[in-house]
Amino acid sequence: MIDQIEDPRFGPSIRIADDGAGLADPRSLFSLGQSEWSTALSQSEDAAGMGFFSLANRGTVIIAQQNGTERAWTIAATPDAFHGKEPVTVDVGPDGHQGVTIIFPERKGDNLAGAVRVASRHFPVPVYFNGEEMPSSDFLETADHVEEWNEIRIGVFGSDQVRYNVDNANFHGVTLKINLPELHQAWHRTLFARIDVVDCAHLKLVLPARKDVVRDAMYDALIEEINRLYFRMVAASGAHSLTFQDYQRGRMLGIDLKEVAAILQPHVVSFAGTGRNVYVAPQKVPAAAFVYEGAGPPEEQTVARALARLDHAPLLFEPYHPFTGYTWYDEISRMLVKSYRMEIDGEVEEAHPCDLFCRKGRPDRLTILLEITETEHPERALETDLIVVGPEYGSLDEMEILVTKQSAITPSELTTFLIDALFSPSDDADAGSYEQQAEWFSDEAEDLSIALLETEHAADLNAIVRVVERDLVWRVPREGAFLIRIDDRKVSVEGFSSAGDERASPSLASRTAT
Question: How far apart are CA 387 and CA 355, in angstroms?
Fold first, then answer.
């Protein structure tokens, strides 16, 4: 019980009463509680921060039952007594006193109610404050599974509960964040633990701060037991997606784990604008599938267009390198782009996907050379009509856009392809908004596409029409017609009159173009 009282010695005070067995010797209060710590450990851990010694600067009076009797002591310790400057006084206490009662002065600004509520939340016995029982709960009440080991309860959690910056260890109401292992999986739940110390004298806190545990043989054994518990739970659940390294670790701990099932994420073509990329749930990998690790949006968009031309495109899956070592994963054929090949007027040139070709002009033929591992014929040729080469995440003016002479791609389709493969908006404050950047890139890609597939002249005309449609058409009447003339960089407008104004001049505007 904890009460706020008016004490004749201290004035406003705090009284803590424990109805236990009392004390065998008052000196134990001032000698680390006869904890049986070794001299070396006592010196290295510095017991000055232990709970009772936190009263050193306040002073206290203790009424303690003499263990096994009806008699009691009254023990008075001033701040100077705690610091060894004067003796601790021990007098005869009231007969019939049960347990130990500690009284010490309350200081202005103490948030006692809040401190008691926090301290009692996970305390193993009921706590009463000013006559009211404090709410409490099991520290592991939301755990998926709880096991007791060496008087420590280990709770394993696998839900999406917040676990970062949250206390995960409870020492009789003192909660703290300590380093406990977690077990991560690719597409199954991650397991993490909390511990609730019941009566384990061998797991100690680092003093004086009591913010971590002592890293000794007991701690190491606890960590191993938590890991073993994780793997037992994974083995019992059946399907898992442990890394091969964790799978081996579990088997070394004696857990009968099966290999991870042959499941991977299907390959999804990436976009230069990362906000457009999507997550796809993993699927079972069939025997004829390939693992393809693309080298960025330009390559992946180029390969995807070429594969779409096939009658039966291969099934592609994303790699997951932590699975390396599993038999089925090591046996999957890997597909990667070795180089690009271009043929113009009978001349053939080959280039790496990030390099530019020396020859210029629209090619007669384009080929993607693939390297297929774990197969009888490791090199394969994939015909295509469009290849974009250059540095990864390069701008339009840094890339080389190759379209065969026979390609049926339209300027609009090519513009869309370039946006997908190359447009990545900048987050620089001076770069403009996302909408502005998208518009600028789209305009540039459209001009480039028309110039490449048609003529530079057609691109210029399209740009003029685009400006008129975007910035001018909405300003003029829906009916009627007028003429905009640009002559020697001078702009004039003819035939544009105000509605209902028959006297308006047929030539209303004339200025020098800027």
Answer: 12
